Amino acid sequence: VPEAPHVSPVRGMRDLLPAECELRDWAIGRILDTYRRFGFARIETPVLEHLALLTGGQGGENEKLIFKVLKRGEKLDLAAARSEDDLSEEGLRFDLTVPLARYYAHNQGALPQPFKAIQIGPVFRAERPQKGRFRQFTQCDIDVLGEAGEAAEIELILATTEALAALGLRGFTVRVNDRRFLREFARHCSVDDEARQDEFFIVLDKLDKAGVEGVLKELGERGFGAATAGRLADLLTGPLAQQVEGQPLFADALATVRRVREVVGPLLGERARVEFDPTLVRGMGYYTGPIFEIGMDGAPGSIAGGGRYDRMLGRLLGREVPACGFSIGFERVVGLLLERGVRAPKAGTRFALLHEPGVDSLQRVLAEAAARRAAVEGNSVAVFARRKKLGKQLDELEQAGFDCVLTLPEGNGPPEEQWLGGGRA
Amino acid sequence: VPEAPHVSPVRGMRDLLPAECELRDWAIGRILDTYRRFGFARIETPVLEHLALLTGGQGGENEKLIFKVLKRGEKLDLAAARSEDDLSEEGLRFDLTVPLARYYAHNQGALPQPFKAIQIGPVFRAERPQKGRFRQFTQCDIDVLGEAGEAAEIELILATTEALAALGLRGFTVRVNDRRFLREFARHCSVDDEARQDEFFIVLDKLDKAGVEGVLKELGERGFGAATAGRLADLLTGPLAQQVEGQPLFADALATVRRVREVVGPLLGERARVEFDPTLVRGMGYYTGPIFEIGMDGAPGSIAGGGRYDRMLGRLLGREVPACGFSIGFERVVGLLLERGVRAPKAGTRFALLHEPGVDSLQRVLAEAAARRAAVEGNSVAVFARRKKLGKQLDELEQAGFDCVLTLPEGNGPPEEQWLGGGRA
Q: Which residue numbers in chain A have pLDDT < 70?
């Protein structure tokens, strides 16, 4: 039978099956628990926001990927509509940081100072669908609002690595850089214009893939002059991080990076290495100071990232409020857990209680189920009608993760237990 | 300072402050835990669905309240657009039942039979904003798909009342009716046309507010004839439920209601009363058999509701699959918990560790915080810079729910503890 139309999820989005949901709920519980022990508090904002907020220039490329919501009723004048702006004034959020800034501006009177926020929820981007990328995905953020010192950065790194470790993941590298250093570095290489600097960073970002020659070649193609190439080539004669750190010129711009490394390194111990990465850029335009990413041995790319964005809240508040945040790439992390066969730990035994409708008294069946649930915390009992093909039913129950099948004998005796698969014999 | 534009949430939606988020997370945890112990498994579907699915006639009035998403790129031809249908093909879900039917049709091969699903997530309705009603709100559903017998209804009632009781709520009344009885009852009152029956039910639904005379009057105004009024008046001479149950005429249509009450009553014990309510209607058009609502002493209206909808899945699957579901009015329940001053139980002690930047070594501060967290499971430690106005800061920390403030003395001694408010002396 062909599937009826519209039975698939909408393009680029997906349904979550029970096993993945269970793993995600477990992972979110572990992350939330860790963040709460660091004194962060969860908040929530609506999924919809004013388009004027979302398109305020803070979201970079993401602003082009907004799902816009059609105006309703009298507000929608189709005949007079000249552009999309006439049709829509609200959209689905593309991240949790822009809504957080709005939230803080709107609710600041009711929030402690500084404010340490957790946000976990779906965000939406109309990207071209591709493997492992979805148009709805979960973000998992912590932010410290109202704290200017590097204590914020340090706590975010400690909390995020501890949350990832609570999922059983190991072998982290925290890469640290600073937007102020990047600007200084660009000026040193004779790139003074801010927009040109951003382009310079994009090319520099490719150093580990393209190599020194590749970077110098692309800079030439993009019209960066000989002075830029010369200065950069000088610094690239050895490992860039060492070259840069050796230059007194960059000492001021790297002071925070150095302090963060000094404090965080010993506190992290075996959990993670901390490295200065002068080519770390991160996409979002709103960062103003230290930026970070967390990588993991055996997993290319990054599994978390963040940084300081001291000027975003000022745009909404009319006064500056320093801010710093860290986001776990939750879908990436769940993908790694699934790859490694990690399953949510079971709290107790999963029983399936089979009854024969019309023969077994439903009251006896349900009373037995209630007793089994009450006997051990974490036990679960699902009641099912016994099917004629019992063998097939047992296979399905094992497949669905049940540990033990219970059937009631005639009379009043206790149920017979049949343990499935690798369960208790 | 006036608020910048777009700093408020969008119309009809709201931000959740930390205390409410904590209560909601606790409540969801308790509900999920209860439902899992009954053998239900959580699933998730995307927030967006095909409009063709959402407007398939199953959603009743809710179909008029859909937030539609603007088409993108080449698909959006503004010049050629004649109606909303040309502008949009996806929308935000208005409930979790219609998406569940799609989910089951799409994923049935990977799901156990019967399938017992939990869904908790946001739904969206563009209703006129009013007190306690929001355009984004959380629903909390369980459904049994593929089980035709009343065991499904009975388990849903047991699980839902147990979940509500796990939140500390008491004094439930489960009201039960049956759509088949309602049709029979309408025919007995000479209303044979299905659409007219639906109108008859709407009026009947008002019996407890309008009284017998009010109902008879409105029926007359709506053009129902003397035969209808006469038959109904006869039945309304005593309490309607008793009158109806005494009529052998309705015995078949009420057989399931009777069996459900017989089995469920003793199993519920003190937790809830079960009553037959012949005027219970419930809005959704898709119900086909027993319907329920749960009320609570001292709280008008209902806090949960559901019923059997055996024909919805057939429309998508091409074969009939019996289905039955129960939904907790989560926003209503959270409102009741807040009214009663219920707070999420604390797992441990909430410490605020104050440090003097530049004086206290950050490394010592953070090591102390880590040690306190590790000492007792559930303890949380938030690190804050000490402010000059310490009295004000302590007030704020108490307000924010902290139990104890820690400050480090000079030298290497343990931190000084200052317990706040009603905390340990």
A: 1-4, 284, 422-425
User: If you count DSSP H runs as helices and E runs as strands, how many of each does chain B have, helices first?
Assistant: 15, 15
The answer to whether the beta carbons of residues B278 and B240 sit under 8 Å apart is yes
Distance CA A323, CA A58 (A): 14
- ipTM exceeds 0.85, yes or no: yes
Q: How many residues in total does chain A contain?
A: 425
Using CA atoms, how far apart are residues B331 and A422, in angstroms rounded to an integer? 42
Is A190 touching B (CB cutoff 8 A)?
Answer: no
User: What's the gap in Å between the CA of B232 and the closest CA on chain A?
Assistant: 36
HEC states along A292-342? EEEEECCEEEEEEEEEECCCHHHHHHCCCCCEEEEEECHHHHHHHHHHCCC
**Cα–Cα distance, B252 to B42 (Å, whole number):** 35
Nearest Cα neighbor of A312 from A301, A303, A321 is: A321
Query: Which residues 225-264 on chain A approach chain B with CB closer than 8 angstroms?
Result: 263
Q: Are B5 and A104 in contact (CB under 8 A)?
A: no
Preceding omega of A114 cis (within 30 degrees of 0): yes
Partners of A399 on chain B (C-beta within 8 Å) are 112
Region label for A146, one of left (φ > 0), alpha (ψ between -120 and 50) or beta (otherwise):
left
What are the CA-CA distances from residue B156 to residues A214, A369, B138, B236 (Å)? 64, 14, 19, 31
Mean pLDDT by 10 residues, chain B (425 residues): 77 96 97 97 98 86 93 85 89 96 95 95 92 92 95 96 96 95 94 91 87 93 94 86 86 90 90 92 85 95 95 91 97 96 90 89 92 92 93 91 92 89 58
Please tell me the total number of residues recorded for chain B in this structure.
425
Contact criterion met (CB below 8 Å) for A325 and A298:
no
Q: Would you call A420 an interface residue with chain B, using a CB distance cutoff of 8 Å?
A: no
Instruction: Decide if B348 contacts B179 (C-beta within 8 A).
Output: no
Chain A residues whose CB is inside 8 A of the B349 CB are none
Q: Are B200 and B224 in contact (CB under 8 A)?
A: yes
DSSP string, A213-279: HHHHHHHHHTT--HHHHHHHHHHTTS-HHHHHHH-GGGTTTTHHHHHHHHHHHHHHGGGEEEEE-TT
Instruction: Determine the residue of chain B that is closest to A315 in CA distance.
Output: B4
Record: contact A45-B70, CB cut-off 8 A: no
Q: Which residues of A are less than 8 Å from B365 in CB distance?
A: 151
DSSP string, B233-251: HHHTTS-HHHHHHH-GGGT
Nearest CA to B137 among B388, B326, B330, B280? B330
Other Cβ atoms closer than 10 A to A239: 10
Using CB atoms within 10 A of its CB, is residue B294 exposed (0-12), middle (13-18) or buried (19+)? buried
Residue B182 phi/psi, 5° resolution?
-60, -45
- The verdict on pTM exceeding 0.90 is yes
In this predicted model, what pLDDT tens digit does every residue of A299-340 receive, in sequence order?
988 999 999 999 999 989 889 999 999 999 999 999 999 999
Contact A104, A115 (CB under 8 A): yes
Contact between B220 and B212 (Cβ < 8 Å): no
Q: What is the pLDDT of residues B149-169, one digit of tens each?
A: 899 999 999 999 999 999 999
Torsion angle of C-alpha atoms B217, B219, B225, B230, degrees rounded to 10: -70
Are A201 and A193 in contact by the 8 Å Cβ rule? The answer is no
Name residue A414's beta-bridge partners: none
> Which residues are within 8 A (CB) of A412 and not within 5 positions of it... i.e. 6 or more apart?
none
Q: Which of residues 337-356 of B touch A (CB under 8 A)?
A: 350-352, 355
Mutate to test the interface with B, among A380, A396, A398, A399 (most CBs of B within 10 A): A380
* Chain A CB within 8 Å of residue B151 CB: yes
Residue from A48, A147, A334 to probe the interface with B (highest B Cβ count within 10 Å)? A48
